[in-house]
Amino acid sequence: MALFGTDGIRxxxxxxxxxxxxxxxxxxxxxxxPEHSRVLIGRDTRSSGPALEAALSSGFIKGGHEVVLVGxxxxxxxxxxxxxxxxxxGVMITASHNPAADNGIKIFGDDGMKIPDEMEESIESWVCxxxxxxxxxxxxxxxxxxxxxxxxxxxxxxxxxxxxGISVVVDCAHGAASTIAPRVLRELGAQVHEIAxxxxxxxxxxxxxxxxxxxxxxxxxxxxADLGIAHDGDADRALMVDRQGRLIxxxxxxxALASSMSKAGTLDKSSVVTTVMTNLGFHKGMxxxxxxxxxxxxxxxxxxxxxxxxxxxxGGEQSGHIILRKLATTGDGILTALLILELVKASKVDPDxxxxxxxRYPQLLENVPVREKERALNDAEVIAAVAQAEAIxxxxxxxxxxxxxxxxxxxVMAEADTxxxxxxxxxxxxxxxxxxxxx
Length: 439
Description:
The chain is α/β, with parallel strands linked by helices.
């Protein structure tokens, strides 16, 4: 039974992700860290969060550890706190951009990074075995009511200038950023209009946030803000929109940060790390600036692994996960927004040019629900069709067909020098996958 996807454990609460499973995951993880360690547990705003918090706490307490509850906090905040002395693990209860009915578990090590594959495999092996939880009787639990304030202080110290004179709309998806993102922006001097900051446990990501930008686009145009910022449920990503409501995705954000850091001499090894989803236009634009692009699989954990291995300062994903290695150990949506706003304040970036900061190749993506995603990817007929589509596009585009790391989906992506060519490729390949493997 595979528990971990590309971003931890995630699924429907009460069906896949049960309280029993959560307790077993915690107890299994408890066996892999030193005795009597401190474990932090945070969560987003889903109604299932407190119950999962109790189940995870039980597993770690029975394993003999000290559980410290930090309450509702963005995922990057939990990762930041995990770096504090004496902390062995940080456990975040969230399903990120998924609907409220889902929830998940992300685990961070004492280095602030998501635990390695080997540790995930050890946890899976124990959870799926017939082993029984035995209470050590030595665990305990407490709450840290100042934890969030330490993360807020870190965010405010990450930029050196005031944001006065800048007008922003921030959409917090009724998630973990709902209280702190508007507060941090205001305390740094920005004029803030906020939407989706009233979580009720069931409305997280519902028609708002980084996967539903319409409300943000409308509000930005209404108040004529300089920029709109959209977070997802756990605030580990940020997408933006300009005054006209045009999307500023992770590729645009990464391009702006990379070019600015390159000019300032702070872009280590003149390189940036991104994923296979990054637009071809990004690669060509970086080449013109003399910046090398390192490519990884999709997932901010893989971006960070490459950054650490190569000593690179900056990396990110089209989806809005941006990592600055000297400031964070995972994608941080609030931090990303602050850094872009600082560039705007210093007139190093024109907010009206961010959406077109590099010449973008038309890119289309279709998600095809399938019965078994790995079987679909290994289908000889699908493989042959992909090869044929790639041959047709040649150097004028590319094809990427991959499995979702969190859902039973095959993602079919095409980029080409014209929208028509990209559309033809996506439509034909999606139709084939759907016909042979669709639900």
